[in-house]
Every structure is written in C-alpha cells, then in structure tokens.
Amino acid sequence: MRTLRIALVMALLLFAEFVPLQAQEGAALERGEVIIEDVTAPDGVPGLRVSFLVEASREAIWSVLVDYENFTRVFRGVDRLKVLEEDGHGARVEFWVDAVLKDLHYVLYREYVEPGRRLTWRRVSGDLKRIHGSWEILDTDDPDRQLLVYESYVDIGFYPLTWLIREGAMDRAEKMAQRLRDWLARPRL
Fold it and tell me: Domain boundaries in the chain?
C-alpha cells in the first residue's frame, strides 16, 4: 500500500510539472511564437523540433510541403533540388544545400506516410552519414488553423561539424516557419 501511495504522489508531481509546461507552450503558440527544441533521435542523432501554428487548411499546407517546383523559394538554404522519381507513396529527391559552413549534396526518400498529415524523410545517399526527419500536420479546433511539427536529425560524421550545422539550423528555424506562413498567406491566382 505504501508503494502505491509513493507511486501516486510521484505521478502527481510529474503531472504537476508537465501541465504548466504544456500550458506555457500552448500560450506561446497562440501568440504566434515558434517553439524550437534541441532534441536527439532514438538512434542518437542530434536534431531539432520546430512547432508552430499556421492559418491554413491541412490540404494547403500539404501541397506546399510536396511542391518541389517551388520548394527552394519556400525553404531557403536549399540551393536546388531534382526530383528523381515520385509516386503516391513518396519521392526520391536530390538536394544541394547551403548548410552554414559546408555545402552538402545528398538524396532523400520523402515518404508520404499519411498523405495530407505526415511525411518523413531518410538518407538514400550523399555527403551525410545520417539524416532523417518529418513534417506532421496536427489538427486544432479550427479547421483553418493547423499545428505543424518539423523534426530534422543530421549526422555529418564529425561531431563538431554536426553540432555547428544543428546550431545553424536552429538559428534558421524561425525564419523557415515564417516563410512557410507567408507562402501560405499569399494571394492565389
């Protein structure tokens, strides 16, 4: 019985710590802030998570995430790309990227895990030792307002350079979110 009470008290304390943090993040998102977190993938690759609200439908956001013709206009730092193949399940895309201190060239497979909701990517070949990540579009109470969660994990193969590239990506993350918002808000012809 004593063990059960201790476990309940520990659970309540953990919950009490977690709820205010969620409330703070929710309030920050409502103010239009971009939440950027330093995270590590289960496989040990360092990365970042970016969360932000967007005033657009899920369909409009998805169309931008898979619009390879305009990709470099929305996502700066990608100097150019070439779609090697694409079908309803995903795309194999070749990228040339300005990654802060080093230009990188690699091929990713972008899998449309849940079309309209979630896509992931992983390294096929190129300069990077490992790269994987995802975009997830989460519904809110308003169908014209979505929560976007972007995760990217990159391992160059040399920790100091990997760390510098992640720091550069974290510095660019807020601008990426704002460009995506601006692109979605632009008038349609």
Answer: 1-31, 37-185
Whole-angstrom Cα distance, residue 136 to residue 60?
13
Distance from C-alpha of 127 to C-alpha of 98, rounded to nearest angstrom: 12
For residues 13 and 91, give the distance between their C-alpha atoms in angstroms, rounded to a whole number. 45
- The architecture CATH gives domain 37-185: 2-Layer Sandwich (3.30)
pLDDT tens, 12-42?
Answer: 334 434 344 466 677 888 888 889 898 888 9
The pair of structure tokens assigned to 186 is: 């632009």
Tokens 């150019």 correspond to 80
In three-state secondary structure terms, 159 is: helix
Radius of gyration of the chain (CA): 19
Task: Give 90-147 pLDDT, tens digit per residue.
Answer: 999 999 988 666 788 999 999 999 999 999 999 999 988 888 999 999 999 998 899 9
Q: Where are the alpha helices (DSSP H) in the chain?
A: 2-30, 58-65, 71-74, 159-185
